[in-house]
Specification:
Enzyme class: transferase
Pfam families: Aminotran_1_2
Structural class: alpha/beta
Pathway: Amino-acid biosynthesis; L-histidine biosynthesis; L-histidine from 5-phospho-alpha-D-ribose 1-diphosphate: step 7/9
Cofactor: pyridoxal 5'-phosphate
Oligomer: single chain
Strand order of the largest sheet: 2-8-7-6-5-3-4
Bound molecules: pyridoxal-5'-phosphate
GO biological process, one term: L-histidine biosynthetic process
Strand content: 15-25%
CATH architecture of the largest domain: 3-Layer(aba) Sandwich
Mean pLDDT: 97
Low-confidence stretches: none
């Protein structure tokens, strides 16, 4: 059958998600495994969100609000933007794909960096567009190289800020200068999935304030990380309203389900949970970095809720950690020596660090 698939799909490999806890426990016959593999919020959902979700269950026989009015209104208020600048997605991955499908054809190219988020090559390949992969600089995005790579046929650039799996980030003045040099015909997606963890850094950009200046700028955010809703799948973009209207033509009418809409709206309202999540991450990051320093392991400084640590052989250490009931993520690809570990609860971080010491 493969010859009947589109050329892009023929060259596509399925996304490898982090191993679920249940699967590890079943395969290895162990209990109490921990997962620090998918950059999820270790706090679990906010009680306020759980209550709202329970209240919404009685409505599941109805289709959700296809326009996501209540959530968009809350987001618009929070970010001081117009509602028609917001596009909701079934996770921000959905929005990333919608943007590519709205603007890029097979005859065009998409630029992203080496070691950047895996979804960018996936969506590019799926539509059969030409990927232009720029070399990383100190594991992060090299914006000058990305600028220089723009061709006549380039329609889209993906920038993850901070980037996953490296945790690297681009600062305010570099990103602003970059945007100034990109022609209006090239859309720039700034993927801010870890914004809530990163924004306290004084040099981290507030890219939303540039939207009026750059009609080709699209900022994406998610409820999957600091808001603790990865399982419900809600993300969004904020862009010029013209861009949002175009993406909306491609979007499936009910791409965000009714429970997710209610949960995300409730999550926005729970600032205590968000604060707690950010503080927990800050402390856990410190705990991990100190331990790595003591063990003499080098790691890439990260503004996200995860660290890429150099363990010589990521795949091997990943396997050995699995046997001790700890799920991490070998980065692989061009970074075979690295393991990515998500920041967990202090106790989970300690279990991981103990297991790592044992492995060494
Ligand atoms: C986790 C992550 C996302 C978010 O994905 P969702 O589909 O919203 O769960 C987007 N971009 C990057 C770089 C990520 O790491």
């Amino acid at each position: 059958m493969i010859k009947f698939a589109t050329p892009g799909v023929q060259g596509l490999r399925p996304y490898q998600p982090g191993k679920p806890i249940e699967e590890l426990e079943r395969e290895y016959g162990i209990k109490n495994a921990i997962k620090l593999a998918s950059n999820e919020n270790p706090l679990g959902p906010s009680p306020q969100v759980l209550e709202a979700v329970q209240g919404s269950l009685k409505d599941i026989a109805r289709y959700p609000d296809g326009n996501g009015f209540v959530l968009k209104k809350a987001l618009a208020q929070k970010h001081h933007v117009d509602m028609d600048m917001i596009t909701l997605g079934n996770g921000s991955n959905d929005v990333l794909e919608l943007i590519a499908r709205t603007f890029v054809t097979q005859a065009q190219s998409v630029i992203f960096s080496e070691h950047a988020f895996v979804v960018y090559p996936m969506v590019t390949q799926a539509i059969g567009a030409r990927p232009i992969v720029t070399s990383a600089k100190n594991w992060g995005h090299d914006l000058s190289a990305m600028q220089a790579a723009i061709c006549d046929d380039t329609r889209l650039i993906f920038i993850a800020n901070p980037n996953n799996p490296t945790g690297t980030w681009v600062d305010k003045s570099s990103l602003k200068a970059f945007l100034e040099g990109v022609p209006e015909s090239v859309l720039v997606v700034v993927d801010e999935a870890y914004f809530e963890y990163a924004f306290e850094n004084p040099n981290y950009p507030n890219s939303l304030e540039w939207l009026s200046e750059f009609p080709n700028l699209i900022v994406t955010r998610t409820f999957s990380k600091a808001y603790g809703l990865a399982g419900l799948r809600v993300g969004y973009s904020i862009s010029h309203a013209d861009v949002a209207h175009l993406v909306n033509r491609v979007r499936q009418p009910f791409n965000v389900n009714s429970i997710a809409l209610v949960a995300a709206t409730a999550a926005l309202d729970d600032s205590e949970y968000l604060k707690k999540s950010i503080a927990l991450n800050r402390a856990g990051m410190q705990q991990m970095r100190q331990a790595f320093d003591k063990m003499g392991l080098s790691y890439i400084p990260s503004l996200g809720n995860f660290l890429a640590v150099d363990v010589d052989d990521g795949a091997k250490i990943y396997e050995l950690l699995l046997r001790q009931g700890v799920i991490t993520r070998p980065i692989g690809g061009g970074m075979p020596q690295y393991l990515r570990v998500s920041i967990g609860l202090p106790s989970e971080n300690e279990i991981f660090l103990q297991a790592l010491r044992k492995v060494f």
